[in-house]
Specification:
Bacilysin_H2HPP_isomerase; globular; 10 strands; Cupin domain-containing protein; 31% strand; Jelly Rolls; 2% helix; 166 residues; Cupin_2; RmlC-like_jellyroll
């Protein structure tokens, strides 16, 4: 193996056969996690399933009109890929900026940016793939009066926790 200046782990006895690339079929995602009314979530890539150390990936199905409160994710970067439906994002110190994304669109949320996720459809489930830059679940709620109040169904997944009392 050519040396590129980085340390490489020793090659396993099976030559990476069982510890190398893994395909996670869509029908085998792990829904054995706490579920929340209004949303269904399932992990595809995490430490427990494949030994991932630096990323988490899974699917999120958000029921119509679901909204989060204002929050940010600390040092984490997040990428949301919209498979089906219409997502509306609000962000900024007063959630004053807004953008919508539809099927095939990617949404990038940088570290520390105050934001709110919204299913912009009153009658269609929003189906997304979520990838985050660490296995940590970091969500810091911010005391901002949201422009669109989360009064119907809260958007809660492994990184968006339900507010106290829900």
């Amino acid at each position: 193996m050519p040396h590129d200046g980085h340390d490489h782990p020793s090659i396993p006895a099976d030559g990476w056969k069982t510890t190398g690339v893994r395909v996670i079929p869509g029908n085998s995602l792990d829904a054995n996690t706490a579920q929340t009314p209004g949303m269904n979530r399932a992990a595809a890539i995490n430490a427990a399933r494949v030994g991932a150390q630096k990323i988490w990936a899974g699917t999120v199905h958000i029921h119509p009109d679901a909204k989060t409160g204002a929050h940010h994710h600390g040092h984490l970067e997040s990428v949301i890929y919209v498979v089906k439906g219409k997502a509306r994002m609000r962000w900024g110190e007063k959630l004053e900026f807004t953008a919508e994304a539809g099927p095939g669109d990617f949404i990038y949320v940088p570290p520390y940016v105050p934001h709110q996720e919204i299913n912009a459809s009153p009658d269609e489930t929003l189906e997304c793939v979520l990838v985050r830059s660490d296995n940590e679940a970091v969500a810091i709620n911010i005391d901002i009066e949201p422009v669109e109040k989360p009064e119907t169904v809260l958007w809660v997944d492994p990184i968006h926790r339900a507010p106290e009392g829900h």
